[in-house]
Design a protein that fits this description.
heterodimer, A: about 325 residues, mainly alpha, about 0% strand, globular, disordered C terminus, B: mainly alpha
Chain lengths: ~325, ~300
């Protein structure tokens, strides 16, 4: 067990080096999109952790991302936290919010939880207009500055802002994936799966169901908060418009496309979410379409994909296959 | 006087919430799904009403069109999407949340479709009834002819529903098949078909809400999002499976909102729904008229 753990850490490290190296060979736009993919991977994994492994649903993760983003920016701008600490602070505040929400959530079943988190997603971003410190509709700017000089020097001077975003995003993503992977193999991961599979049996074996659900919600929220802080970083600001209901829905879509109980699938989900607007843009301009079409085509396609996935491959493309060998039953 | 004014504001918004809550409750009772796409369906039917009004220049002609469209859309959703969903994804790890996700997908689909056809700009769907409040002895009350129409419209819908549910065979079948689908099937009720009719009723209620409330605001692909949340909160206050509860929940929420706006401030509108919902779920999770089944078993 120990050996495989250090091996997997090594693999993550290798992937990281590969990706960081890769950033030297792509243009600015791709680097930016790479950073976007990383953020989506974190956010989607947070939903997979919650829905696929703990059996709770959240339509409000966009709001939790907003909490993470705003906390990170506030701590960075006002208290001059260093960047990493600001990200951690964002994740921590989101975790606290998730803990409180999770207390309510643990008492609720599917539709009630969905409705409550939906109300949060609709309501929370507008709070920004109420408190002066949150900057209202324009939001707050977030400038993390250029990459430190020693990194720029090591890689040969030409170190752009987007590449720096990409580096940060990739590092955070890999760290998160590694963390979740280990967490799911730990006692907590087994507990969540047990509760998800058969709550009564889990309770009889001495698992505190409520506590297990609240913990899952807290961890998931922390990850969403981190993703929110990273999103604020690449956007250069936090504003209510960045954390709309659409964002929450997009994340759920990504998780469903990934197969809700398949952590690795989050990469597929994230890629799809980033690639779709790219493709639809090309299609829309090719068709000479108006702004109406190009603005709404990505939403249309992701929604159709979501519906088709839920009907035809509700457990995600990969798990579908594994089901035949009976392996996936434990999940 | 201020208290009475606030109450009147709450009355008309409460009537709209009640209609939306009715739509959600009707679907929940028969299908055990909270239909998040209801906001989308109502928006689509309102856009259809808007188109009819552009052609005929008559609001009163357009409203029935919107209602019929709303009913047809809902019946279509049940007959195509919900049945496919039940057939295919009744087992597996996501079976519990699959309907929720499917209705979300549908909401997204309708939003982008309406955005493609009509654009994301704010459109005006105007009613001939004035939006200016009545004047009583030199005091303008915040209750306009359009508000009166909203309240009357909601009352008519509720009256029709009550009559159908209480006095007709269809109503009996609707009640029976949502209460005990298996036994109803044995008794010769075509449960699937009845369920689709139930969805059509829900769609009609949502369409009435959309067509009546839009003249007081504006029309855009997501202009009814808040109404969806308010309708859900109202339905939860009422117990989620009681029609009378939905109406009461809507009124309570509408009046409650009006007082919050009056005495706390307008900027809390959006978040108030969330906090009210949380409070209700903590204090009385089964609502004021809900059945005794706890939320976990629902």
């Amino acid at each position: 067990m120990r050996k495989s753990k250090s091996l997997s850490a090594l693999i993550f490290f290798a992937i990281g080096l590969f990706l960081l190296g890769l950033s030297n060979f792509v243009d600015e736009l791709r680097a930016y999109q790479g950073a976007q993919v990383g953020i989506y991977v974190i956010a989607i994994s947070s939903i997979i952790l919650l829905t696929g492994f703990s059996g709770q649903i959240s339509l409000g993760h966009g709001a939790l991302m907003a909490i993470g983003g705003y906390s990170a920016v506030l701590s960075y701008n006002h208290w001059h936290f260093p960047m990493l600490l600001a990200f951690t602070f964002g994740a921590a505040v989101a975790a606290l919010a998730g803990f409180i929400l999770g207390m309510a959530a643990a008492r609720l079943s599917g539709p009630y939880l969905a409705g409550t988190t939906l109300a949060l997603a609709v309501g929370l971003p507008s709070l920004a207009n109420q408190f002066h410190i949150l900057g209202g509709e324009q939001g707050l700017s977030f400038d993390i500055g250029e990459a430190p000089k020693w990194i720029a020097d090591k890689t040969g001077g030409d170190f752009t802002q987007y590449k720096w975003f990409f580096w940060i995003s990739v590092t955070c993503t890999l760290f998160t994936m590694w963390f979740i992977k280990n967490l799911l193999q730990s006692r907590f991961g087994r507990t969540w799966r047990a509760v998800r599979g058969n709550p009564s049996a889990a309770a009889l074996s001495g698992i505190n169901i409520g506590r297990s659900k609240v913990l899952a919600f807290t961890v998931s929220s922390a990850l969403a908060g981190l993703a929110g802080a990273l999103l604020a970083m690449i956007l250069g600001l936090v504003a209510p418009m960045a954390f709309t209901l659409t964002l929450s829905f997009t994340l759920v879509t990504g998780a469903v496309l990934a197969g809700v109980s398949n952590l690795g699938g989050s990469i597929i989900g994230a890629l799809v979410l980033v690639v779709i607007p790219e493709i639809t843009d090309a299609v829309a301009t090719h068709l000479g379409g108006s702004e109406k079409i190009s603005a709404n085509l990505p939403g249309l396609i992701t929604s159709v994909l979501l519906i088709l996935t839920v009907i035809f491959a509700p457990n995600g493309p990969q798990l579908h296959k594994r089901n035949k060998s009976g392996k996936a039953k434990t999940q | 006087m201020l208290i009475l004014d606030t109450f009147l504001i709450g009355l008309s918004s409460g009537a709209i919430y009640a209609l939306m809550a009715l739509a959600l409750v009707l679907v929940w009772r028969s299908t055990r799904v909270v239909n998040f796409a209801q906001a989308g369906q109502a928006i689509l039917s309102t856009y259809i009403g808007y188109e009819v009004m552009n052609r005929t220049h008559n609001y009163w002609v357009s409203v029935p069109f919107a209602i019929v469209a709303g009913a047809a859309i809902a019946a279509f959703v049940d007959a195509v999407l919900m049945r496919a969903l039940e057939k295919r994804s009744h087992k597996g790890s996501v079976s519990e949340i699959a309907p929720v996700i499917a209705t979300l997908g549908l909401l997204g689909l309708i939003r982008s479709l309406t955005g493609m056809i009509w654009g994301n700009a704010y459109l005006q769907y105007t009613s001939p009834a004035s939006g200016k409040g009545y004047e009583i002895s030199h005091h303008t009350i915040p209750f306009s002819p359009q508000n009166l129409i909203i309240v009357i419209g909601a009352l008519v819908v509720m009256g029709v529903f009550a009559a159908v549910f209480k006095f007709t065979n269809l109503g009996l079948a609707l009640r029976a098949s949502s209460f005990q689908p298996e036994i109803s099937r044995l008794a010769g009720i075509r449960v699937d078909r009845i369920r689709t009719i139930g969805w059509a009723f829900a769609g009609a209620a949502g369409a009435v809400a959309g067509a009546l409330v839009t003249p007081t605001t504006y029309l855009s692909p997501n202009s009814l999002d808040l109404l969806l949340v308010s309708g859900f909160v109202a339905a939860v206050i009422g117990g989620l499976d009681s029609l009378i509860g939905a109406v009461l929940g809507g009124l309570i929420l509408g009046v409650g909102f009006a007082f919050i706006l009056q005495y706390i401030g307008t900027s809390v509108t959006f978040s108030a729904a969330f906090f009210i919902l949380i409070i209700v779920l903590f204090l009385r999770p089964r609502g004021i008229l809900g059945s005794k089944i706890g939320r976990r078993d629902a």
